[in-house]
Amino acid sequence: MFKFGSFLMTPMAKYLMLAFALVFPLLAKNEYQVYVMASAFVWAIAVYGLNIITGFCGQLNLAHGGFFAIGAYTLGLLSSDYGWSFWPAFVAALVMTAGLGFLVGVVSLRLKEHYFAIFTLCVGFIIYLLMDKWEELTHGPIGVRDIAAPYGFGLVDFTNTVPFYYLVLAFLVFAIWFMGRLSRSLLGRTFIAIRNGDELAESLGINLMRNKILAFVLSTTYAGLAGALYAGMVRFIGPEEANINHTFDMITYLLVGGIGTITGPLLGTVGIVWITQSLQFLEEYRMIIFGPLLVLLVIFFPRGITGSFLGWMHHKRQQPQATAKRQASKATAATEVESNA
Amino acid sequence: MLKIEHLTKMFGGLAAVNDVSVVFEANKINAIIGPNGAGKSTFFNLVSGLHQPTSGRILLDGVDVTQMRCDKVAQLGVGRTFQTTNLFEQATVLDNLIVGHRLRTRSGLWDVLINSRRLQAEEKASRDKAREALDFVGLSHVENQYIADITQEERKRVAFALALATDPKLVLLDEPAAGVNPEETDGLAELMKKMVANGLTVCLIEHKMDMIMGMADKIMVLDHGEKIAEGTPAEIKSNPVVIEAYLGSDEDAAA
Amino acid sequence: MNLFFQQIINGLTLGSIYGLVALGLTLVYGILHIPNFAHGALYMVGAFMSYFLMMDLGVHYWVAMAGSAAIVAILAVLCERLVFHPLRNSPPIHDKIAAIGILLFLEALVQMFWGADFRRLSSPFTGILNFDGLIIPEQRLLIIVGAFVLVAALQLFLRKTMIGATIIAMAQSRDGAFLVGIDANRVAMMTFAISGVLAAIAATLYAPINLVYPAMGHLVIMKAFVIIILGGMGSIPGAIAGGMIIGFAEAFGGFYISTAYKDIIAFGLLVVILSVRPQGLFAKGAH
Question: What's the predicted TM-score (pTM) here?
């Protein structure tokens, strides 16, 4: 067991996971399974975005689903109403979510903790209302049809499920790679310092606003990327993409997998998407299980699967040292008692 | 080093710090004492820039930092600790300290994306700085332990190290010896003397009188936001106003 | 002119409901510093409990209201004991996520039993009063009077009883309250119970002129948050004043500007206010 645990910490485990993802379409029983996996990957990209602002920076962003929907709508509307082809619209979707993320961030990130969460909850709802009511722009409840699929420059046809799966996988790998690099960099450490506390971070000479806005814009861009891929995959979107429940779903994926970790968002998202898929009856009532699960997780396992595993591994390694130290400190405590007496 | 002129901070009509003027000299241990609620922590928050004063001036080596944001003040060389320092519990001591040198580095998002040479150099510098600070406070041996697994006294030292990693000239220590036993208190006092010996200026808030009287070069006494006395430990001990304030309101005087 | 008065009545009705919901939210925030995202779900459960008691058990409207208030109060206390109490020393992000967990659970549970359809709660007060051309449906009058009575009763409770006084003391200073030996657990449970009662009654009062469905709490809770930010988080008069401001803004905005966008008014207002004053409209200076 210990050996297996150690193995999971090596780069080899990463490459095995990637290899599995690469051959998955061959292992899958049918195209539908590939489709499900591709959609899980799309959500995972968005969850990585949430992980930046909420996991690393410690700011609970409840508008994340809204930014996902903005990415999807930007691509959808540009391609269906304005005749843009996929890739320019795709870039526009990223620019749009980054730009709006910047604007929302400038206003909302001055707010602390609860105020920020409440504010973003309202921003998410405004996004939903606009998509639902602003019919001239968004078609209202009817939604957007005939969204362009990504074109493969004559090389591949992304309207087929399997090529699309690999496209999503490529973006996912990039998203995770960047997340890993970010988390180990000085910038990632800066975000974590902000999570530890605004005042402490400031007293370390960290410019709070600049770093929080950067984290927020990164997170909304991830959301926009996921949203745009989603629109290119399903080709038909509606205001429900901005439903607050999507944000809640993503929070659940993040918490189950491990908030603030690198592998957590992937494990949480893929795991839960497959569990809900295989237990179809769960689809409608999944929240009866997810709700209490969220509560139990924050009370007992606030660090999710990955975080708990890492903690366990760390203690396995430190055990001999730690025991020795505990005995040493017991000894000093004993001498203190003696000297006091 | 640090010159305070008529510093006042009002919170909704109440003066938390009222017309305090004082000079703290470089390379000395300066202590601020006073009963609970005397405005000591507020005073620190004003100096470090977390709060903006209502009136008065703060000069750091002749530079007016009164209206400066906290992160700017830190860059000018003011490091500080808090009564409780929230650290990332599930990360190693070293990982927690590396960010301390962030303010002396400039790498941004682009550097992360291309893993630039500058980023690599700066990360190495930050890591070295963290090790140096850890070594200074005498904790090199717990480098790889999680914060959650170290003792209360070690946490205090890690908080010191974090402040030291910012390359400060002046360190503000808020109750550095709270919650540690007498033996460890002595150790922390030694550490502060070591900081001064290495060219730093120390300014601390403390309730432990024995410690203060034994090591401070200068003491300022605050009561209800006002400075009621300043001087050497000997002067403070015999000052009737101080005795009055302490005997009247605070049990710590007995300690 | 008459239409104008009609909007005043509408504003008062909406303001009363929003005020009651916001009052519970602000009390909980003031004492425990928890932004209870599940409060809207308690409101929704309140409406469904009244619906259940009236439609399935055939009890009278008033009895249903009392029963629903009792059930939701117990539910709120359970939330405090089982969820928020164990999390009292956790990082601030945890209690918010836990509150979201409760919200998701309650909604899914109600949907499992009653489905996602819209339902209507009938009320014995279906008459319409006509004051010289000014038309007031009885139920709306009941809402306004009911809210007024509840707020007055709450004030009496907080000012005149021992436990009420401790709630106020704790809202002002948590640490201080511990020093003078207040049983913080009892106060916390009491506060949650009150917030549950207020939510259930508000829902039962409003349901006859609105619809009952599992997602009915979403808009209400978000508006309640806007209200308590407007009025200062933790402030009782602020919640009532904020409720009226939003109620009137919606009634008049919906009538004179656009019905489609009336729900956006509250959130637009919040965005503008927080952009200018990050600490809220009536909040005290620093902190």
Answer: 0.90
